[in-house]
Design goal:
The structure holds two protein chains of two kinds. By secondary structure, chain A is an alpha/beta fold. Chain A is built from 13 helices and five strands. Helices cover 63% and strands 8% of the residues of chain A. In chain A, strands 2-1-3-4-5 form a five-stranded mixed sheet. The longest helix of chain A has 31 residues. Chain A is elongated, with a radius of gyration of 24 Å. In chain B, the strands form three sheets. Chain B has a six-stranded mixed sheet with strand order 5-6-7-3-8-9, sandwiched between helices. A four-stranded antiparallel sheet of chain B has the order 11-12-10-13. A three-stranded antiparallel sheet of chain B has the order 2-1-4, covered by helices on one side. The longest helix of chain B is centred in the middle third of the chain and has 16 residues. Classes of the chains: A alpha/beta, B alpha/beta. The interface between A and B is medium-sized, with 25 and 29 residues.
Chain lengths: 345, 315
């Protein structure tokens, strides 16, 4: 091989085409931002969903379990002390009931709309059970901290969503278009190493990430005070593995597509279920247990989990090695299959 | 550093034997033999669907034949594909280069695939696109796009150039501009395989031509040889209003051959001034006249018509 000029030129060509396409600039840079802003604002509206309430096991709250369970407006679960606070932070529960026999403590995030519903419903059931106007003292404790609000939870999800959709669309659509225009055929009539063409697509994607992700982080910080808890290196590792895996899936999705219409169908069929299932906009815990094994194995779930572990919880990438391994496996398998099936003409 | 193996330079540029290729039930190429010496411009003529493009793509290593042998510059695709590619220039039909790239950028991209070749500036100069080098591909005319495509084909200083219907859809001026570029490559000793369905293009550019139909070569030779097979230098095409027998027409002075196609009759002859008056007198003597009459110098189109009963551009 030796000569990397062709790889350089192919990467440059791909970058030029992307930069000269106003729609691509919109989808890659503006769209995730608008999505974050829209959702950040929209989620101050009440949620139609039944809010979840956690009772710390061993707390005074356990006395009221039956009464709380009878309330149709809330859903009850009993969690350990740490589990409960994790669940609250991740948005899996809206309210945590703790405290002792005489003074109960309500912990919630006031910026979450459903926390208010949960609080009112829980308080009403508890007082009715206790009898009288207010025999139990309830001390509300607002746990809104930067980094623990919905928007904080949302931003890593948007990053994951962005890595998935730009990987699949950016790679899959362009390759299909090049095949449809017979450019792939023209290229393989030259001595160009075929791997260079595919590698160039991925390299160009990585170059775009350098602009894309920092911009999103910066905007989230400036507009919503969303802090980045983890280290830059850890985030970069997670982002790179995620981007590479979805590039592999993009190659696989477009390895044999003849028309851009056909590619759109396939890519949508991959992207849409994952947007819903994999914890982009709301927690995967909202789906029934029977679906969890499927949800856990889809590549966007480990990516979002790893991104949140670094972004929200400040963990190092080594703490999410399992998630990263699953994600990398997806990428490698997709890449190998794509190379085997790839049709140049 | 990669060095190309040096194949014997006395081997022909292209040699293939018994080429067969089917797509489902359709046999696109049926036992095709071809031998093109170095330095020749060879024209493959035929209507759409004759199997020209399939043949060329097999020779270019883009399709595999079902059966048959191919040797390019003395090498085989199976074991020396990369070495062949470095010495081929290819221009395919219906390739749409990326609209959002500039002319210069496209040429630089293709140049990067080859270990040797002219500079980007030289390539642009050769196809007269120096002034357009900063233009986007999107903004080029059909002729300019085709010239850009030829510049990409010339990027590796090829020994052998494949041109698949290079001037289809171009206006006369753009065609002449492209012809001049092709001629300069030929004049420098390059070998060309040109497919076309324009006989004037083949007559101007090709040293030898082959007429291809239904996946085989019907006849091969220099344009003059092929035209000579018609027997006469001129063609008279007419429609008589009365019945005139083929035998009678054949006995007219200087007539070499007679053909019928519907109501039309075709005569080839060497001396128009002898044949024409005799033809008019004959039809007159039957009490009829000529509903139509045209004459032209015999061309490859007439050869094709004589061989297949169809015209080249009928498709």
């Amino acid at each position: 091989m030796g000569d990397l000029r062709s790889l350089g030129q192919l990467t440059l060509s791909r970058l030029r085409v992307m930069l000269r396409e106003p729609e691509i600039i919109f989808w890659v840079f503006a769209f995730p931002l608008l999505l974050a802003i829209g959702l950040g604002v929209a989620f101050s509206d009440p949620m139609p969903d039944t809010p979840r309430v956690a009772i710390e096991s061993g707390s005074g709250g356990e006395r009221f379990i039956d009464a709380l369970r009878a309330d149709p407006e809330i859903e009850i679960r009993i969690l350990g002390v740490e589990e409960a606070s994790d669940a609250l932070r991740r948005g899996e529960v809206s309210l945590v009931i703790a405290g002792d026999e005489t003074t109960l403590q309500f912990r919630y995030d006031p910026t979450r709309a459903e926390a208010r519903t949960a609080r009112l419903a829980a308080e009403r059931s508890i007082q009715r059970e206790a009898g009288g106007p207010a025999p139990v003292t309830i001390r509300p404790q607002e746990v809104e901290q930067l980094g623990h609000r919905y928007i904080d939870w949302l931003i890593p999800g948007i990053i994951g969503f962005n890595l998935m959709s730009t990987g699949l669309w950016g790679i899959g659509f362009y390759i299909t278009q090049s095949r449809q225009n017979r450019q792939l055929k023209r290229l393989i009539a030259t001595p160009m190493p075929r791997g260079h063409f595919l590698l160039a697509q991925i390299l160009a994607r990585f170059v775009f990430l350098i602009g894309e992700i920092p911009l999103l982080i910066l905007a989230a910080w400036l507009l919503f005070d969303v802090p980045m808890a983890g280290g830059i290196v850890s985030l970069a590792v997670v982002v790179l593995i995620g981007a590479a895996s979805f590039c592999g899936l993009g190659l696989l999705a477009s390895s044999r597509t003849r028309t851009t219409e056909g590619a759109s169908g396939i890519i949508n069929a991959i992207v849409m279920p994952m947007v819903v299932l994999c914890g982009v906009f709301f927690s995967t815990a909202r789906f029934p247990d029977a679906m969890q094994p499927l949800i856990r194995i889809l590549p966007l779930t480990p990516l979002n989990d790893a991104l949140r572990a670094v972004y929200n919880d400040g963990l190092a990438f080594t703490a999410v090695a399992g998630e990263l391994a699953l994600l990398a496996t997806w990428g490698i398998v997709a890449f190998v299959l794509a190379l085997r099936w790839f049709r140049w003409q | 550093m990669y060095t190309d193996p040096s194949p014997e330079t006395d081997s022909p540029a292209i040699r293939c034997r018994g080429l067969i290729k089917s797509f489902g039930a359709v046999q696109a190429v049926r036992g095709l033999d071809l031998e093109i010496p170095r330095g020749e411009c060879y024209g493959l003529l035929g209507p759409n669907g004759a199997g020209k493009t399939t043949t060329v793509e097999i020779l270019e290593g883009l399709q595999e034949p079902d059966r048959g042998e191919v040797e390019i510059l003395g090498m085989r695709w199976a074991d020396q594909g990369k070495a062949i590619r470095r010495r081929l220039g290819v221009q395919l039909q219906e390739v749409r280069l990326t609209d959002k790239l500039r002319v210069r950028e496209v040429v630089r991209l293709f140049r990067s695939f080859y270990p040797r070749g002219p500079s980007v500036a030289e390539l642009l100069e050769r196809v007269h696109l120096t002034e357009k080098q900063s233009a986007y591909v999107r903004d080029l005319s059909g002729g300019q796009r085709q010239r850009l495509s030829v510049a990409c084909a010339l990027a590796g200083d090829p020994d052998l150039l494949f041109l698949d219907e290079p001037t289809t859809g171009l206006d006369p001026q753009a065609r002449r501009a492209l012809w001049e570029i092709i001629e300069s490559f030929r004049d420098e000793g390059g070998t060309i395989l040109l497919t076309t369905h324009f006989m004037d293009e083949a007559e101007r550019l090709a040293d030898r031509v082959a007429i291809m139909d239904h996946g085989t070569i019907l006849i091969e030779g220099t344009p003059q040889q092929l035209i000579a097979t018609l027997g006469g230098a001129h063609v008279i095409e007419f429609e008589p209003t009365v019945r005139v027998e083929v035998l009678e027409l054949g006995e007219l002075p200087s007539v070499k051959s007679v053909r019928e196609r519907g109501p039309l009759r075709f005569l080839t002859c060497d001396e128009l001034h002898e044949t024409l008056p005799a033809l008019v007198a004959l039809v007159d003597s039957r009490g009829g006249h000529l509903a139509s009459l045209t004459t032209h110098r015999a061309t490859l189109d007439d050869v094709f018509l004589a061989r297949t009963g169809r015209q080249l551009r009928d498709g």
